[in-house]
Amino acid sequence: MAWTENLTETRNRLRTLYKTIPNVTKGFGAMSKAVKEEGVLDFKTKEFIALGIAVAIRCEACIGLHVEALIKAGTTREELSDVLAMSIQMGGGPATMYAGKALECFDELSAA
């Protein structure tokens, strides 16, 4: 899978959705911003949690967006791998398959 293309397609779908239901998506955007900026956990920790959930619920688009954010936040492959291990523990076999996708995404996007 080409994760760069996946991210472009995800963003294009989101732009269309935002235009279709702007009030809902503005509200969701405001909530997302507040969650990331407030609280005692730092941004990177919150993104680790989001990635773990994305792997456990098997959301490829979410994996791409959160891995990209983690790369920008300076995440190492070892840190990401530790989060993926916890995701597998919580999500079992299906999470194992999506953890592989998340690692592949990290490797591709961090090399770009």
Automatic annotation (TrEMBL):
Gene3D superfamilies referenced in this protein's UniProt entry, alphabetically: AhpD-like
Domain Carboxymuconolactone decarboxylase-like: 22-103
InterPro entries from the UniProt entry: AhpD-like, AhpD_core, CMD-like
Organism superkingdom: Bacteria
Pfam families found in the cross-reference section: CMD
An MF annotation (GO) of this entry: peroxiredoxin activity
Coiled coil: none
Keywords carried by this UniProt record: Oxidoreductase, Peroxidase
Record PANTHER family: ALKYL HYDROPEROXIDE REDUCTASE AHPD (PTHR33930), BLR3452 PROTEIN (PTHR33930:SF2)
Name assigned to this protein: Alkylhydroperoxidase AhpD family core domain protein
Species of the source: Thalassovita gelatinovora
Biological classification of the source: Bacteria, Pseudomonadati, Pseudomonadota, Alphaproteobacteria, Rhodobacterales
